[in-house]
Amino acid sequence: LKLFYPKPASVFYASKAFLNLAMGSLLKQEGVGIDVCSEGELFIAQTAKILPQDIIMHGNNKSERELTAAVKAGIKRIIVDNLDELTLLEKIASDLKKECTVLLRINPEVEVDTHKYIATAVKESKFGFYRDQNQIPAYLQKVCTSGYIKFKGIHFHLGSNLHKVSFYEEAIEKVGEYLVSLKDAGLRVEELNIGGGLGIAYEDHDPLPDIQHFVKVLCEKLI
After folding, report:
1. Cα 218 to Cα 214: distance, rounded to the nearest angstrom
2. What is the pLDDT of residue 122?
3. CA–CA distance, 89 with 145 (Å, rounded to integer)
4. How far apart, in whole angstroms, are the C-alpha atoms of residue 9 and residue 100?
5. Which of 3, 73, 138, 197 is buried most deeply by CB count within 10 Å?
6. pTM of the prediction?
7. Alpha carbon distance 5, 219 (integer Å)
8. What does the radius of gyration of the chain's CA atoms come to, in whole angstroms?
């Protein structure tokens, strides 16, 4: 990653792919962060001695108990999927008198070439905020006034088993335009999390993913 991108950047493993204590220990050993989606995954990450600053949590149906556990743990980022969750998270953080840092998940509305059930950024998707929700800047500014919610930036995830880097290029362009609108509304945007989903070879005739090319193209798009 450092070969192609001169600015600060981090890599996080999606624990929903596979997680046990051995995998958690390997991630810690290799200096890779972990992306958890539940209290159970958070517990395994903590048991594997992964530091809070190397843990992020996302998911479109996080419970109050899961959000409370994440805030108490002081993890690096909580990725917020909707306004109701943002409201709940602000209440939890205020009640605990503990800061938490958030990214907003944005749906860039990009049609991708994968199974419809694992395409998460199409127009009909249940995941994330839509870019035309004009109340988002005002609502963010409101919840941040308590001092317990710290807004850092934007996250998107296009889906799984994707083989064309062009899908990510399109999403980066669309989300980049949205970042400009947030800045124009007075919000400071410091981070962009571009998710994952690079496809693998499932059958013998499938080509192996060229990870170096994938990372190089994305980094050039981001710079």
Report:
1. 6
2. 47
3. 14
4. 20
5. 197
6. 0.88
7. 6
8. 17
